[in-house]
Design brief:
297 residues, alpha+beta, Metallo-beta-lactamase, Chain A, six-stranded mixed sheet, 7 helices, 17 strands, 23% helix
Length: 297
């Protein structure tokens, strides 16, 4: 069986890893989870991270045919439209992105947002298969972090998005709207039923305490033996109790609000105004001293 070529691109500001995954025979490639550089303080966006991937592909004779999103990310904006514009690639994501769009459409009052997933070129159901050149890609629906998370199994590798982190760091949070810790546990156990030698490529790394280097590749066997959250023997109830307690202590991701509203549109911003500037929406709620929301008007 032909194994995929894999090149990782690490974006330290968002702790995100994007991948170029290619078929050596046909020189056809996919880009997984590309990052758009965005400075929330200034509102400035640029494409230097995505340009690195495009330049690498050009310099090494790879033809980018598709962009694959593992989910609608809450911690970085997607550069999928830039990759598409420069390569003609189509953009794919799990079909349950429609559920995520329905959740967040009222949150951001995005009345023009379609909730049928049509901002994306392809929507994947669990078990779908497609090709990168002569490589077969199998789609695994792994909800829990969000309703739409998918993993892509390609040869001896699986790209699992935010579902798992390195064994010494653990697992993804499950407290975003539509998230579910119990569902996350079941999705992870599904991944850990893959062959022990299956390589798992992660979307993020935050360097667990005591570790000085960033890492984003592990195996099913390593996760089953030593994951601090889901090693063999951890029950579903124990995982859910741990995950819910941990999630309650986590802060909101810095780029949550811009990321979600852009990423559920396949990385597109709303149309620019007459001044040529695009704008993001920031929902504002007021709270009383007792912590309950109020309307100041």
């Amino acid at each position: 069986m032909t194994q995929p070529f894999i090149e990782a691109f690490f974006d330290e500001p968002t702790n995100t890893i994007s991948y170029l995954v290619g078929d050596p025979g046909t020189r056809t490639a996919a880009v997984i989870d590309p990052v758009l550089d965005f400075d929330i303080a200034s509102g400035a966006a640029d494409t230097r991270s995505a340009e690195r991937i495009v330049a690498f592909a050009h310099d090494h004779d790879w033809r980018i045919a598709m962009v694959l999103e593992t989910h609608a990310h809450a911690d970085h904006l997607s550069a999928a439209p830039f990759i598409k514009a420069h390569s003609g690639a189509w953009i794919g994501i799990g079909a349950h992105i429609r559920d995520v769009q329905k959740i967040f459409r009222p949150v951001f009052a995005m009345t023009d947002l379609k909730t049928d997933g049509s901002d994306f070129d392809r929507l994947f159901e669990d078990g779908d298969r497609f090709a990168i050149g002569d490589l077969t890609v199998e789609v695994l629906h792994v909800p829990g972090h969000t309703p739409a998370d998918v993993a892509y199994r390609i040869g001896d590798a699986a790209f699992v998005g935010d579902t798992l982190f390195m064994p010494d760091y653990g697992t993804a949070r499950a407290d975003f709207p539509g998230g579910d810790a119990r569902m996350l546990y079941r999705s992870i156990r599904r991944l850990l039923e893959l062959p022990e030698t299956m390589r798992l490529f992660l979307c993020h790394d935050y360097k667990a305490p005591g570790r000085d280097d960033y890492r984003w590749e592990t195996t099913v066997g390593e996760q089953r033996r030593s994951s601090v959250h889901v090693h063999d023997g951890v029950s579903e109830d124990d995982f859910v109790a741990m995950r819910e307690k941990r999630d309650a202590s986590l802060s909101v991701p810095k780029l949550l609000l811009p990321s979600i509203q852009v990423n559920i549109r396949a990385g597109r911003f709303e149309a620019a105004e007459t001044n040529g500037v695009s704008y993001l929406r920031i929902p504002v709620t007021w709270k009383r001293q007792d912590g309950k929301e109020r309307n100041p008007s």
